[in-house]
Each structure stands twice: as structure tokens, then as C-alpha cells.
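Contributing new records

If you add data, match the layout below exactly. Sequence lines come first and carry their own label; structure lines follow with theirs. Keep one chain per record. Anything else will be rejected by the validation script.
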Amino acid sequence: MKQSRIPRSMQPSLLHRLAVRIVLGVGAIWVLIPIVWLLYTAFKLPVDAFAFPPKIASPFTLTNFRTLMSNGYFAAVLHSVIVTTSSVVVSLLLGLPAGYALARGNFRGRNVIGVFLLASYAAPAVIFIIPLYFIYIRLNVLDTYPSLVLAYMTGLLPFTIWLSRRFFDGLPVELEDAGLIDGCGRVRVFVRIVLPLSLPAVSTIGVLVGLSAWGEFFGALILTGPSTVTAPVSMGNFISYNTNDWSALAAAGVVVIVPVLIITVIAQRGLVSGLTAGALRQ
């Protein structure tokens, strides 16, 4: 079959393509400059991090990362890993079936529930965090992993349900009908047919939920203590009224950002396909 060509009049001109590349290049540089500066400062001597004008040629050192180890920062990173992993698992286990029920269920109030979930996700965190703080004090569960994960669910679970519903809406119903005709129940259809077809979408939701939980600051600041303090909150220990250890703070930022960059690069193709999976209905 002969492929149709785009008319020459509709093709972008050389000047247009060049302008697009320049804009994209400038935007990429604008985004990368803070990251490059953060990496550079993390391996600088502490005294050079305060130099003004900035000292470009500075000896390479791992002193700042040794400072992180002596201050117990990597224990906070471990807390972040535990809380983030738990948040992703709970969000997917509860959010995916709920999203599928909203996408395929035929009951009253389905759209109202969808709007409520979206509003819950868009609501400021302070609406949930402050009441939860007093509830946790009464129940004596403050500074525990389950309480922190539960607090994260106030925003992450509605997001998971709402986004997964959009993805499931885009799947062809005929495949599910064929499974039902063959004798599969609704749960088996969901596990054996829908989830395998939705793996790019599920991985996308998992990555987005993980990124949100990994970088959460306000909720962790209010609800954590020495036993569960997370990495974003622990970074504040390097800034005080008397001293600011910018090089150690940069090293802490590298420890937080690098895993996110690695995961994003690895999951880049799945993120693109996942984000567009629910764009069109079949």
C-alpha cells in the first residue's frame, strides 16, 4: 500500500525546524544547569562551595558524602525507600481494582465518585495532614511507617484510582467480554486479561506515585520523627541560623535526585506509552 505524503506546503520550513531546535536546546540547558551545578558542588571542598565569585576549579573530594554518613543521612534515605515502596504497593493494590470498577461498573454516582477523587487529589495537603497529626497523637501512632503511608494515601490513592480509570476506559471491552463468555469471572478477567494489557499504564502509575512519595516534604515534616524521618526532611539539618553547609546539602540532593533520574531514564519508554494509553478510546 502506497503511503500518503504530506504536501510540501504543509511541511515545516527549515527556519521553523531550526527555531524549534534552538528553543528546545535553550530549554534543556535551562533545566540541566541546576542539576550540573548541584553535582559539581557535591564534589567540591566545603570551603570552595562558599567562595564568591564561585570557584570553578576545585579539587575533587568525597568529604561531603562522608559528612552525610556521619550525620545519619543514609538512614533517612532508607526510611524514604521503605515509605515510598510501601506507598506504591498499597496504591496499586487498592487503586487499580477501584479504578477498574469505576471504568466498567454500571452504578449510580460513578461520575460523582470520580469528581470527588479528583478533588481530593487537588486539595491542599494541609487539609488532611493537620487533622491526621492530632489523630495520630491520640492513637499514639505518630512517627511510624503505617501512619505515614496512610497519610500519603490521602493524595496518592485518589490519583491512582482516577488515572487508572482513564487507562482502563481506553481498553477494548470485547476482550473482556470474550473472557466472560469463556467462563471467567470479573476478578479473573481483571487479573488475567486487563492487567497484562495495562502493564505500561501500571508501570507509569507506579513511577508517578513513587516520585510523589519520594519527594514528599510537608507531610513527612509534620508526621515523622527520629524513627521515620525521610531524606527530604533530613536535608534541612544542613541549614541552620548559624551555619549553612552548602556542599553537604548538595551531596544530599544528589543522593535524592540520582535514583529518580535513573528510574525515569529506564522507564522512559514505558512512561511515554503509558501516559498516552488512555488518550483514545478504542
